[in-house]
Amino acid sequence: MRAALTWMACGLLLCAAASAGAQSAAKAVEADGTTALHRAVYAGDLPQAQQLIAAGADVRAVNRFGANAMQLAAVRGDAALLRALLKAGADVDSTTAEGQTALMAVARTGNVEAAQVLLKAGASLHARENWGGQTALMWAAAQSQPEMVRLLVSQGARVNERSAVRDWQRRVTAEGRPKDMYRGGLTPLLFAAREGCMPCIDVLLKARADINLADPDGTTPLIMALLNVHWDTALHLIERGADVQQWDRYGQTPLYVAVDLNTLPIGRRVELPADDVNTGEDMVRVLLQRGANANAQLKLRPRYRNIPNDRYMDPMIVWGTTPLLRAAKAGDVPVLKLLLQHGALANLANAQGVTPLMAAVGDGHIHDPTRGRFRTEEDALQCYDLLRAAGADADARTLLGYADADLKIITAANRTAVHAAASRGWNTVVKRLVADGAKLDVIDSNGLSAIDYALGRFRKEFNAKQPEQYTDTVALLRQLGASAENPTATFAPSSVPRITAVVPQ
């Protein structure tokens, strides 16, 4: 008997010691504020987390990085851990330092059961994180989680709200008072279009999301899908009624974007095969069939694709540029045919007076891989034939040049297609131009002739390929009757220019 009592006493003492140890472990805090509960939840260890909670672990403890146990469970999309934490008194709407709630984190994971646990506990559907102002619905759409989108919409998530715009000038009034920091930004539909999530788009449109509601730069869901090379998604939006004429602040219409992206080069890395059935050319065809304006012109120079590598890479693509000029610049023969068949004007120039024909035969001698650097003379000749058949003027002249701070003209006015072809050494194109009435001895506003261009005497533009000399082209020009040249012309490679417009008198 005495032995049994002794063993019982020892057992009680051991239990007490174990309990004390568990309580001590549950309340221990590392130097950065991390607790044993943090670590258990992070590892997905539900039994350990339950033991720590039972031993008195603080379910609301936040470490130095702003993480609490709720957030860690939400990132995992772990419904069981979330239930345990909520039952122990965790705050369902507690946030990280960035203002992200557990529902936002769960929305990214796509775990509908975990989201239902949070919503049942009263999680806010409309909370926004601090940095980007995104809601849980926006996060779900941005991560292509259609079932999560469906759940959140069914619970009343707002489908036409926008995320924040990180633009301090827009956020501050003239008196220096903050404006509404959540004005502008992307809607859930824009996020879905960016990711090419067609099921998400269908759920949002069924919930009456505005299919044409744009971001502050005027980017509609259709333009957003095209900019991200989601051809099938773009077609889906068109079929659902997206406006094919609406342009962004730069004047980029869906048609212009489709033409532009159709010749975007593939990278040097091995590319994953596209899931899309449709191509950029298909999109151009569909947009034209739906009545897209083939002659809509850019209002501003489009934003850079890649800074700094795309900086001032193509001064031809400015206000006034049409889809036809852009296609001609790239030597995109199939798209050029489509545009001309749907009424594209062969002589509609950009603000500098550069016509599609000039672009096709080599104007804009820029070392630029994203706008047609790799086109060949054969490409140019095919484009030339199409444009001439549509009435393009072989002897058109540019109207506007650009000069640096010293008024040394960089991009010259009074430049012709012959200047352009000579600068490339494209002799067959030169012959065709002259046969079609192009003048040979036209002098541009730098005082340079076609012979000078063939000899590389024109000023090297910023980021441009170094001018080359084509002696065979010079011989051809002289044979055809050219004589004007400026042997004393010297142009040092330019630095970043301060641009001034120059119009010839």
Give the topology.
Blueprint: H1 2-27, H2 36-43, H3 46-54, H4 69-76, H5 79-87, H6 102-109, H7 112-120, H8 136-142, H9 146-154, H10 168-171, H11 188-195, H12 198-206, H13 221-227, H14 231-239, H15 254-262, H16 280-289, H17 323-330, H18 333-341, H19 356-360, H20 377-389, E1 401-403, E2 409-411, H21 417-424, H22 427-435, H23 450-454, H24 471-479, E3 500-502
Antiparallel strand pairs: 1-2, 1-3
Helix pairs in contact: 2-3, 2-4, 3-5, 4-5, 4-6, 5-7, 6-7, 6-8, 8-9, 8-11, 9-12, 11-12, 11-13, 13-14, 13-15, 14-16, 15-16, 15-17, 16-18, 17-18, 18-20, 21-22
Key descriptive features of the protein:
505 residues, mainly alpha, Serine Threonine Protein Phosphatase 5, Tetratricopeptide repeat, 4 domains, 24 helices
The assigned CATH architecture of the largest domain is: Alpha Horseshoe
Whole-angstrom Rg: 32 Å
How many H/I helical runs? 24
Structural class: mainly alpha
